[in-house]
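Review this fold:
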Amino acid sequence: MSQKRRQRTEDRGQKLRRNIALSIFLVLAPLAGVSYAQDIAKEGAADLEKLSQEYFAKNDYDGFYQHLKKISSPTPEVYYFLALARQKNIEYWQQTKDWEGVYDKAASYKKDIDDNLRSAEGALKDDKGLLLKIKYLKWMRAKEEGLDKSTGLFNDLVNTAKDAAGQDCLQITKDIADELAGLEDKNLSRRLYEIYVNKLIGSDISGADLKKTAVKFLNDNNIYLAKALFEAFLSKISDVKALLARETVGIAGLFAHQGRTVGPDPVFAEEMYKKAYELSGAAAFDSGSQYRRAFNLERMKEFVRAAEEYKNLLELDQDYGAKQKVLFRLGVLTAYAVKNVPAAEDYFLRVKDEFPKDILASSSLYQLGLLSQFHNDPDKAKEYYSALLEIARSQGVDLEKNELALLAQERLVEIEEKKEIKYGLKLFLEGTLGTGGLQSLPQGTHLSGGVTVDLTAYPCEAGIGQPIKYLVTMSNPQTGCMAPAYAYEWSGETGGIANIPNSPELVTDYAAAGIKVVHVAVVGPQGPDGEGFDIVEVK
């Protein structure tokens, strides 16, 4: 075969192969597009959820929307995510103050949302989880537009959550509640959380997982639901009495006052402590939990009951590591709340005798001197104050700067010059203990105006130099349009503040460690109306 002939044959073969390839391409290209669309359509809800997170993390909401629009046969999930992409886009414009986007496109985007949600709900058959998401987004749109129907839509969402079954629906309910809580719709989120918790309790979840979930709710400051889950956890272990008592005490400790922070729910904590005691008596407590119970009651201003629990602590553990603190607190509570001065003096004397080198020995000597001075025993009072100063000198304390030493010296001057105790302090002592006699008055009784006064420190434990705020609150039985004008007479260890304000708030700090006792007397137009005290610890 000649060279030219062979070349023409090869050219015809190549042309034929090109035509065949082109024909195959023309046939398969549409099929490839269909296959691509089908591949996208086959993306399940989980795949779309993951893909949405990837796009949303880049704030590429329109990119995700266009991706979804390529799907030839949209599923209810696709319609939902189309609506969600538009919603997220509008929210992003609002957050970034892109008013051009809001004004130019928001209206059409909102129409897209409504249309896609309608299509999603219309195509939906039996997917309660997706229905929850659709109804939530419908409610959000109505709420943002200020529509009256938003309340009905939320009730519809709640009812759907109640009817929905399965772990997926349970998680979606919680996710929506979490989002609402983050948006500060606390009442709305609580309704969904209650459904979540009730379904969780009714499921076959283990006690350990219930407790773990309860702790998480507590850490998230969702106190109401944490309590419900803890109680459900306790019901699962109710057959083992000793374990139940131990776990109940442990849970109580999570809600009790912590010292530097206010407890999540001190009243609930005491309820748990009571249940534990009913189960196992004193055996339910170790010294640590017994102290927490007493301290929790003290911070709740249940002073008489706190004193009883502190006494129970000393019976439980006679060698308690912070025994001097317990004895001192008992002395203060017994004197000014229980109003049993002789018993209070016994506690202060025990601190002085058993812990002579502790700072609380000096604090106890001051309290002993104060009680003696008020009850017309100046010689005894002078003995206690002088002993305090002697200890201070032996420990190298600067008598011109130490607050306890300065207070003792001030009291000694009053004794030497036969003066009355400082006015504010006198008002507190008279209102609390009477006019100088040893009579015992019921807790909460006032000799003057009858106003109930609460003095509370925030925090009740602090470091040296750290601020502490004392706040006075009152319940006033008087009625009428005008509230009386009150004066506030502060006394006790008021710390480093130079000028004591005539106000219901005192902010101060302390230069030395110890347990401090602060008092306030409230004076109205007709005279003294009430008094209060609080105890703080500086470490």
